[in-house]
Amino acid sequence: MSKSVPIAVFASGSGSNFQAIAEAIEQQKIQARIELVVTDKPNAFVIQRAESKGIPVLVIQPKAYASKEVYEEAILRTLQEKKVEWLVLAGYMRLIGSTLLGAYANHIVNIHPSLLPSFPGKDAIGQAMAHGVKITGVTVHYVDEGMDTGAIIMQRAVEVVADDREQTEQAIHAVEHEVYTKALQSLFNH
Ligand code: GRF
């Protein structure tokens, strides 16, 4: 009998990747359980998505803490209470600091909407379109102290729909949901 891996999903926005992961878990495609959603944005739609699935949410904003270390120590306490083993970043718009990197070495993954190392950082889709590339894509990677610089786990190419940001974004999101599921399967299903 394979065990399910206790994970936390970190998100700052809509949470469509959270939703895709939660559904893949419900369908027993990923052998994990989401013990917690962590968000730094009190109005993020991911909160409603999590609550409707009965998954606890930690809303925690850095501005309430003296430093990034103290902020991450507060997150870490809740992660440890819930015995979380892996952190899955899905649109979490902050760099992970040394406290969480130290506690979860090689156990933090992220999804980024470009073929890294092209277009790291904010608005990767906008960057790709402004550059006029015809092919962009999706990358799942380990998280290190850099901005989208960790070792690559999985990638998939997506064609840019010329001059159509919305359609390009939709295509990328659809591929993200598939690729994140596949990447997490490869990490957690044994
Ligand atoms: C995704 O494009 C992800 O790659 C990026 O942020 C976006 C989050 O979307 N890091 P959602 O909140 O999962 O819908």
Would you spell out the secondary-structure blueprint of this structure?
Blueprint lengths: L4 E6 L5 H11 L5 E8 L5 H8 L4 E3 L8 H14 L4 E4 L8 H6 L4 E5 L11 H8 L3 E8 L9 E8 L5 H24 L2
Parallel strand pairs: 1-2, 1-4, 2-3, 4-5
Antiparallel strand pairs: 5-6, 6-7
Bound molecules: 5-O-phosphono-beta-D-ribofuranosylamine.
How much of the sequence is in beta strands?
A: 15-25%
How many structural domains does the protein architecture include?
1
Helix content: 25-40%
Mean pLDDT reading: 97
In this entry the ligands are: 5-O-phosphono-beta-D-ribofuranosylamine
* Order of helix and strand elements from N to C terminus: EHEHEHEHEHEEH
* Uncertain regions spanning at least 5 consecutive residues: none
CATH topology: Rossmann fold
> CATH homologous superfamily - what is it?
Formyl transferase, N-terminal domain
The CATH architecture term is 3-Layer(aba) Sandwich
Give the gist of this structure:
The chain contains six helices and seven strands. By secondary structure, the chain is an alpha/beta fold. The chain has a seven-stranded mixed beta sheet, with helices on both faces.
Descriptive report:
It is a single chain. The protein has 190 residues and is of the alpha/beta class. The protein has a single domain, classed as Formyl transferase, N-terminal domain (Rossmann fold). 37% of the residues lie in helices and 22% in strands. It is built from six helices and seven strands; from the N terminus they run βαβαβαβαβαββα. β4, α4 and β5 form a beta-alpha-beta unit. α1 packs across α6. The longest helix is centred in the C-terminal third of the chain and has 24 residues. The radius of gyration is 16 Å and the shape is globular. The mean pLDDT is 97. It binds 5-O-phosphono-beta-D-ribofuranosylamine (GRF). 5-O-phosphono-beta-D-ribofuranosylamine binds next to α1 and β5. The site of 5-O-phosphono-beta-D-ribofuranosylamine (GRF) has 12 residues, from α1 and β5.
